[in-house]
Amino acid sequence: MPARHFVKYTFLKLDPAWRRLGDDARAAGKREFAAACADFAEGHLLRAFSTVGTRGDSDLMLLSQAQNLDRIHEFHVVLGQSGLMKWAQVPYSFLAMTKPSEYSDESRLEVRPAHGKYLFVYPFVKTRAWYALDADERYRIMQEHIALGREYPQIELNTSYSFGLDDQEFVVAFETDDAAAFGDLVQRLRTTESSRYTLRDTPVFTCISAPVERALAALDGEPLAAEIEVGL
Amino acid sequence: MPARHFVKYTFLKLDPAWRRLGDDARAAGKREFAAACADFAEGHLLRAFSTVGTRGDSDLMLLSQAQNLDRIHEFHVVLGQSGLMKWAQVPYSFLAMTKPSEYSDESRLEVRPAHGKYLFVYPFVKTRAWYALDADERYRIMQEHIALGREYPQIELNTSYSFGLDDQEFVVAFETDDAAAFGDLVQRLRTTESSRYTLRDTPVFTCISAPVERALAALDGEPLAAEIEVGL
Amino acid sequence: MPARHFVKYTFLKLDPAWRRLGDDARAAGKREFAAACADFAEGHLLRAFSTVGTRGDSDLMLLSQAQNLDRIHEFHVVLGQSGLMKWAQVPYSFLAMTKPSEYSDESRLEVRPAHGKYLFVYPFVKTRAWYALDADERYRIMQEHIALGREYPQIELNTSYSFGLDDQEFVVAFETDDAAAFGDLVQRLRTTESSRYTLRDTPVFTCISAPVERALAALDGEPLAAEIEVGL
Amino acid sequence: MPARHFVKYTFLKLDPAWRRLGDDARAAGKREFAAACADFAEGHLLRAFSTVGTRGDSDLMLLSQAQNLDRIHEFHVVLGQSGLMKWAQVPYSFLAMTKPSEYSDESRLEVRPAHGKYLFVYPFVKTRAWYALDADERYRIMQEHIALGREYPQIELNTSYSFGLDDQEFVVAFETDDAAAFGDLVQRLRTTESSRYTLRDTPVFTCISAPVERALAALDGEPLAAEIEVGL
Amino acid sequence: MPARHFVKYTFLKLDPAWRRLGDDARAAGKREFAAACADFAEGHLLRAFSTVGTRGDSDLMLLSQAQNLDRIHEFHVVLGQSGLMKWAQVPYSFLAMTKPSEYSDESRLEVRPAHGKYLFVYPFVKTRAWYALDADERYRIMQEHIALGREYPQIELNTSYSFGLDDQEFVVAFETDDAAAFGDLVQRLRTTESSRYTLRDTPVFTCISAPVERALAALDGEPLAAEIEVGL
């Protein structure tokens, strides 16, 4: 039986003072950060994303996954020892677990390696009125939502569950190369019945997929290449 | 067929400590910033605005536009390397895309070069009750809103779409030389039926159009000239 | 015909580190700040207020007024060059315009020179339900509000309009020597019909009128005199 | 006729860097702070409280009272000159006035000298629905609230009025030696009719009464004694 | 008769600059912190938790308990003198008391020594509509909630009461080795009737139990061991 996984989204914002350090100090700090990522990536899924140019309050996002929460704790301890983290804040952090869906067979017990250029991530909370509906009614309402999503096969959804673990109920992450289509889908979903039961679905993060070293390079001067190679 | 564009609003606030630096350091930092802007402006729309004297939490706003989000990412990476950005925060950031309107033929697929002295910018979110109305009803309600706007031909509206990309649904930007007329229009719009479906329309930014160099000069001592030359 | 004016409320909070500077540096910083104020005050209304002892998040407030927003921008650029502003934040900022009232003949197109010891300032937003009432109904409801205000002739009201310009709809500023009477009036206004349509009326600032130099002196050790001379 | 008083609650949070200063610097800073308190306390009520161990965002609270707001302003100007305030923020500040109650004869026109070990303080705002009730109805509802309070004679209430002066309507301060009884009273008050008209009653501060010097000593190493002497 | 206890949850976040200090300074700071904990733990319950890798805004949590609030105050005064606290903020702090439950016989007057690997902690506030129900109705509704909890015997609940003492009504803390089961329980509780009366139940903290020294070691490089020994 496939196992459930912990999924962690860690957003970093560099202190502007970090860019005032010398080249060597910055390079060493990034090397140590990349080494911690490489260690964790042996045996666990790890993906990096740049948010430079899409957000003002975040520069880089790491998505880490493990069956054992100890591994994610350990990864963040080691990461915290890198020179880069001595100048970084963590403005957003989402902890969740994978879980089979009540509403769909396409359940995902693991976040998969990169398929798309963008990952659109947001925390999600439903109103309590939603949970007061009976299960059949909730199932019916979700089918309209799911059917609309299927009109966009180029967009892949990962849902993970934060109940009891973190400040949201779900963390949703949509992966695609087509940002315009994704925006259109989200706008169309506003008119579905399920949308009336949304309590909170912000902040929304447009994350650009990149190997760890490229996401780090974007922090002090080297943009991601036009042709981004997906995957670590 | 004209293409949709990404539109990015980037607001900057300088650390007061920046003003304690020597003249040379400040001048170099601004030169590097202006050079990054000039590079991007070759082939893309870029506009600068000063918010000194209109906001307490922002000093300068850059509006950048590109068909490819990579170009906006790249621009912000390069910008981040300027000396100025080593002392700046980004208190607000809005990412959106242009798109033909459902309600009006005057659709805009590009933000245009400067026409007015002021740009009034705010993020915009409608209530879920709005989206529960049927499409005809929404169309009817928007016509009253649009008709009122047409009584103010000196005010030009740019709407862009943030669904799925950022924390708001729309970013609206009104351009005009006549701030009093704009204030009157917004006050009159409060009594329209469409206004009842507004969930959030703040913060509101009064942005004064200026060439990049003038917007930068306003950061450390030289006000925009009384007669502002519009355009980069 | 009298012209409408822009009105700007600028609240400053000094970094505690400023008080660790030497006497000369602090004195020079305040002199430069006062000089910028004196320049602007030639031909424009400018008033200063101390909030030391009334607020924790603000030390000083400047109220500036001009027919042309360029003058207010220019004033803040010059002010920003003073030594004092190199150690100050602007925790609150309100931009508005004067305008004749729909509900009262006592319209004010200019904020007037100081008459009172205190200025009580707050941003004000009405519910959308208010704007859904028809104009006659709104007029009727405002008459009760205005009549109650007239029972307190020692309190003078300045209302300015922020629609489209800033995060609130109105900035209201009540001027009086009698803080207790003002508190009583505000408490009594809670039971009026108009009060049910208030969405937001905070933060509230109790501002103590003072010449610029006295408001500056209160930042590092010299309280406003018991007998305050009103006016610049 | 007894006069109404201004009441000011000033909460301080020390920068952790203050604890890195040498012993002499810290001692001098506290001495200057205590001297400012002693000056004000000649002729005015002044009380000090430690919040070390009860709050994370505040270390010390001063309650000052005067008939003339100038005295409170003056006190805070002088306080601001102490070495301690060069390393302190004011995360919370409440300004209010005493006033006879509409609902009870036990009106208080002065906060009295310390009687209890704890002061429980919070800002308080009622819903607008409350103010839409007629005066008799409000009176009736308050009697249940007051009767319940009288079952706890060991708890003393001070209410002061912030309408028009600050961000809340009331500042309430309960004084007692018995924290458990106070918690029980507040829990029981939740089921009264008056409780349905509460809009906001947080943050809540558990303040431990102490002479100024003891509250200052608790900032850098010396806990309040087990047997606290109440009063300045 | 067993006595009620004060319970204090203190969350710490280290300034990234702390990690830039030398090894000796960091080691001394942690030693002093651990010594303060050891002193308090003689005669009082004290538990430590790491939140590295589960939260972005907290690194470590201390849970302290005493019958006398003076002991908790004293503990935090001494803790504040450690080198570590000279570089730490307290982003969250919850103060509460134990109390027999109205709804269940399984009342707890003390938080017990560690049984589980995780402690899931959050502040909890009910709507005022809950308190308007009569006591029998509230009792009936809570029985469904409690029955569902009993289906998860591997999860142990500690509830403490903050009415009048702090910003929430309750602090709830669930202890278990099985995070997935806990997440499932919380998700299932959303559909109970009692859930409709929840006003606020965030932030949620996933806290990993550890001896004080291990929780401290995780701050600068040594992860908690895979096999964590529970208890101090």
Structure description:
The structure is a homopentamer of 232-residue chains. In chain A, strands 1, 2, 3, 4, 5, 6, 7, 8 and 9 form a nine-stranded antiparallel sheet that branches. The radius of gyration of chain A is 18 Å and the shape is globular. Chain A has six helices and nine strands; from the N terminus they run βαββαββααββαββα. Chain A is an alpha+beta fold and 232 residues long. In chain A, helix 1 packs antiparallel against helix 2. Chains in contact: A-B, A-E, B-C, C-D, D-E. Chains A and E meet through strand 1, helix 2, strand 4 and helix 3 of A and helix 5 of E.
Output the helix-strand order of chain A: EHEEHEEHHEEHEEH
**Distinct helical segment count of chain A:** 6
Evaluate the radius of gyration of chain A: 18 Å
Major pleated sheet of chain A: 9 strands, antiparallel
Give the beta-strand count of chain A. 9
Largest interface: A-E, 41 and 41 residues
**3D shape of chain A:** globular
Q: Classify the helix fraction of chain A into a percent range.
A: 25-40%
Low-confidence stretches of chain A: 226-232
For the record, give the distance between the C-alpha atoms at the N and C termini of chain A, rounded to a whole number: 27 Å
| Oligomeric status | homopentamer
Instruction: Please identify the structural class of chain A as seen in this structure.
Output: alpha+beta
User: Hey, roughly how much beta strand do the residues of chain A contain?
Assistant: 25-35%
Q: Mean pLDDT of chain A, rounded to whole units? A: 93
